[in-house]
TrEMBL record:
Source species, domain of life: Bacteria
Protein name: DUF4265 domain-containing protein
Pfam families: DUF4265
Species of provenance: Agrilutibacter solisilvae
InterPro entries associated with the record: DUF4265 (IPR025361)
Amino acid sequence: MTAPPLTKVAFTDDQGDVETLWAFDLGDGRYKLDSTPWYQYGVSYQDIVLAVDRDGQLHFDRVIIKSGYRTLRVRSNNAVPQSLLDSVVALGCKYEGANPAFVGIDVPANVELSTAADLLIASGLEWEYADPTYEQIYGPEA
């Protein structure tokens, strides 16, 4: 069986910055993300999203189905240590780097988000929750 064709879907943040993510075209305006979001919040690897064509470019409209993946991001002044990335993979997660110092981590549904977060806390590196966000997990007052 042949995989659906890959295309780029543009995501625009509140400041107008655009990130494009690879996605499989499922038809009827639906796309399954095949990239790790490095800058967008509220979307994760393999989420199914609705996108609309504007002037020949697909633009994100909304998430239709959550994949079960969650997204964490880690930053370093230098390259993120390979030992940390190896530990992330050993948990059952995958990662994709925007560059060696900025990495998105895809946490599947069968891995406790807190376990992956504990690895990042122990690393001492700067990191964040991207999907769900910190506020979605702990509330806006946290």
